[in-house]
Design goal:
The protein is α+β, with helices and mostly antiparallel strands and 492 residues long. It has three domains: 178 residues, no CATH class; 134 residues, no CATH class; 80 residues, no CATH class. A hairpin with a 2-residue loop joins strand 6 and strand 7. Helix 3 crosses helix 14, helix 6 runs antiparallel to helix 7 and helix 9 packs antiparallel against helix 12. The protein is globular. It binds adenosine monophosphate and magnesium ion. Adenosine monophosphate binds next to loops.
């Protein structure tokens, strides 16, 4: 029988001063929920770099209080854990009410960058758990923990991961697994789905309250616009378009781009069956449950736009004129395309003015990569040395004639650029390391045996993915053959 979570002694706490998050919005938005303790919690990894960024006291992450608080076995002093309500479209279909079914917001901590929300994920049932058990299994928690920091290392907006705890408590999925809790942080965990929840008739007051909160906190410039709520939509459109360009350029597939997994502040949110592409295949579907390929790699930008229309629909009672909403949504395509072209030009080391031939050069390359299923990350990293070691790039292609034809165009395009400066710039945008599925699987297999060293080492390498890390050369190489048979589904 599990015990109730206990209060920790506040007088001796080294922990942060927890401020209430979202609760100021009132009971329509969130409910007070205590975590449900797990058996014998233990640390798997702690992210001291993030702890420092958050200004947490040196030593708190070493404390028993932190272990108990971040595993959901105790409520830290001053915290009022909350679960928030949202709704959403799942796989294109209105799913109605969802909400934080297994995530609890412990509160906000104030940092030099502004307030940051802290959530624990997997700490038990909430009023929004529906059929779920409120738990998260070790395997999916390791994936979320590592990928959060991998994305941060890549410079892609994301929720962060502060700590990962495990427990021998059993959790039933397709088979019996063990539980884990990820502590994640973000300026905001608000989703498109939070707005969709209040987008229906008779809920305009709550909708306005939510929109005002988001404007005040994250988009204050929208206040000065003729239509602040249309400006809010436009601001989310812009951040989302830029985020999609970053995902596409690094080969990241989210896997479950439901509207409840889309961040209002443009973060990568809710890591489930995600994948970084191994071989480049625009049609790649990383989520084994996504039988229709709705969230295939190449469809992500269009899905984000569809999701933004849902957000626009939800905000319509505040925006008023449909044309204003449509005008705000209109910016998506041009922002995305400009950001994507800029990202690919950066990957090619073209930091001079855009030329007419650049977009066709990118398109031809992507076609060649797709035709030969070239490893995406290895290709770009090798391309950094193209002007010194052309053969290493060429070796990745089956159709050498097609590659040679492209390479001649690329060479001409690069003629005026300094090779050393270009190489340096390319190495700062083409990562040597991404969290390939097989790397996560290997770390998970070892963690299941009680060895957390690979998780820690992988986290450290992925936090600096543009560096060389000679001790971990193998992680930068081509994936093993078995990598393509890994199946990751929604169940986690
Ligand atoms: P996801 O697919 O992880 O984005 O989750 C979709 C919805 O299901 C959200 O409302 C989650 O909180 C909820 N959910 C997912 N897994 C669980 C679980 N094991 N227990 C309770 N709720 C869950
Ligand atoms: Mg979710």
């Amino acid at each position: 029988m599990l015990k109730e979570a206990t209060e920790v002694d506040s007088a001796r706490s080294l922990g942060p001063a927890w401020q209430p998050a979202l609760s100021a919005l009132g009971p329509d938005f969130c409910v007070r929920v205590d975590p449900r303790p797990l058996e014998a919690p233990h640390w798997i990894d702690r992210n001291h770099a993030l702890a420092r960024e958050l200004g947490l006291q040196e030593g708190w992450l070493e404390s028993q209080e932190a272990l108990m608080s971040l595993s959901g076995c105790a409520v830290p002093p001053g915290s009022q854990p909350l679960a928030s309500v949202y709704s959403g479209h799942q796989f294109g279909v209105w799913a109605g009410q969802l909400g934080d079914g297994r995530a609890l917001i412990l509160g906000e901590v104030s940092t030099t960058q502004g307030p940051v929300e802290v959530q624990i994920k997997g700490a038990g049932r909430t009023p929004f758990s529906r059929m779920g058990d409120g738990r998260a299994v070790l395997r999916s928690s390791i994936r979320e923990y590592l990928c959060s920091e991998a994305m941060q290392g890549l410079g892609i907006p994301t929720t962060r991961a502060l700590a990962l705890t495990g427990s021998p408590s059993r959790v039933l999925r397709e088979e019996v697994e063990t539980a884990a809790v990820v502590t994640r942080t973000a300026a905001s965990f608000l989703r498109f789905g939070h707005f969709e929840h209040f987008g229906g008739p008779g809920q305009e007051a709550q909708l306005r309250q939510l929109a005002d909160h988001v404007i005040d906190r994250f988009y204050p410039h929208c206040r000065d616009a003729a239509s602040p709520y249309a400006a809010l939509l436009g601001a989310v459109v812009e951040r989302t378009a830029r985020l999609m360009a970053q995902w596409q350029s690094v080969g990241f597939c989210h896997g479950v781009m439901n509207t409840d997994n889309m961040s209002v502040v443009g973060l990568t949110l809710d890591y489930g069956p995600f994948q970084f592409l191994d071989a480049f295949d625009p049609n790649h579907i990383c989520n084994h449950s996504d039988s229709q390929g709705r969230y295939a790699y190449k469809r992500q930008p269009a899905v984000a736009q569809w999701n933004l229309y849902c957000l626009g629909q939800a905000l319509l009672p505040l925006i008023g004129a449909q044309d204003d909403a449509l005008a705000a949504l209109e910016g998506y395509r041009s922002t995305f395309e400009a950001a994507l072209t800029a990202a690919f030009r950066g990957k090619l080391g073209l930091d001079d003015a855009l030329r007419e031939e650049d977009v066709p050069l990118i398109d031809t390359l992507l076609q060649a990569l797709a035709a030969d299923r070239v490893d995406y990350t290895v290709f770009w990293r090798r391309l950094c040395d193209f002007r010194l070691q052309r053969e290493a790039v060429r070796d990745l292609f089956i159709d050498r004639a097609a590659f040679d034809a492209w390479a001649r165009r690329y060479e001409v395009r690069c003629a005026d650029l300094d090779p050393q400066l270009q190489r340096q710039a390319m190495r700062s945008v083409n990562p040597r390391y991404v969290l390939r599925n097989y790397l996560a699987e290997q770390a998970i297999a070892r963690a299941k045996q009680g060895d957390f060293e690979p998780v820690k080492q992988l986290r450290a390498v992925l936090q600096a993915p543009y560096d060389d890390h000679p001790a971990h050369q193998a992680w930068a190489g081509l994936p093993p053959d078995w990598a393509s048979s890994i199946e990751i589904s929604c169940s986690s």
